[in-house]
Amino acid sequence: MRVIIESDAQGVGWRAARFVASLVRRKPGCVLGLATGGTPLGTYNELIRMHQQESLDFSQVTTFNLDEYVGLDPAHPQSYRYFMQENFFRHINVDPGKAHVPDGRAKDLGAYCQEYEQMIEHAGGIDLQILGIGRDGHIAFNEPGSSLGSRTRLKSLTGETITDNARFFEDESQVPRLAITMGVGTILESRQCLLLATGTSKARAIRSTIEGSITAQVTASALQLHRDVTAVIDEEAAAWLTRREYYAEVEEAQSLLENGEFSRLGIGNQ
Ligand code: PGA
User: Fold this and answer.
1) Four-way CATH pick for 2-239: 3.30.1490.20, 3.40.50.1360, 1.10.260.40, 3.30.499.10
2) How many CB atoms lie within 10 A of CB 219?
3) 176 backbone dihedrals φ, ψ, rounded to 5°
4) pLDDT at 93 over 80
């Protein structure tokens, strides 16, 4: 896993947005996997700025969101569809027909989850999946104990997640108990993953994810099995990592390679 440590949340948003924008420019018809929550907001804001000021074009992009609460109408201010609409989609030129968020009001939820998987497949699979992380190490709503091979399905939220998400609702009793979520297996099939984390509350989960053992108790740790994951995190979220110096060295070598400064890497000196 590539680990990039930025000084603060703003730096994470800036770096992640450049990562996404570079893919959109290289492959205008790419498929992006998107996440909700507080963490990716800085990334979306920077992408919106790049759309408005630098002509970053989303007209051919297809998007799939990770998850949605069961039972909330898309127009409900706490639904993830509404979140995406307000914080990203309505500010860019994505085709509304290509911006997918799971439908938490589907009549047959089991059949709908399978359909969502098929829609991803028909779009050609996800090129880049953006991920936040829960304090308990969940990705999407894959709570501790989720199968690491899981597919899109219904999931009961843990008490911790309900408490964390209550800040967006009037009170905790209004937070839905069930969600539709892409599975860990679905996420692992994305060609690339971009894991974002900011703040001290994520430090323990980030340590377990990057330096801990692979376990269904920390579903983000399954990303260690993926061949192309970049974690962009801030200093606070990186606080518990033990190999920070090495991650910084890797980044330095990477940028020297990208800039063609081979001699500084000892290449071609003999
Ligand atoms: P957050 O949520 O970005 O609001 O911290 C992350 C998550 O629970 O996946």
Assistant:
1) 3.40.50.1360
2) 29
3) -60, 150
4) yes
Cα-to-centroid distance, 250 and ligand 1 (Å): 27
Which residues lie below 8 Å from residue 28, measured CB to CB, with a gap of 6+?
A: 57, 59, 60, 61
Q: Is 266 left (phi over 0), alpha (psi -120 to 50) or beta?
A: left
Centre of ligand 1 from the C-alpha of residue 262, in Å: 39
CB 139 within 8 A of CB 184: yes
Taking CA atoms, 28 is separated from 17, 20, 43, 164, in Å, by: 15, 11, 18, 36
CB 76 within 8 A of CB 175: no
> Is residue 37 lining ligand 1, measured as CB closer than 6 Å?
yes
pLDDT digits (tens, 9 = 90+) for 223-259: 999 999 999 999 999 999 999 999 999 999 999 999 9
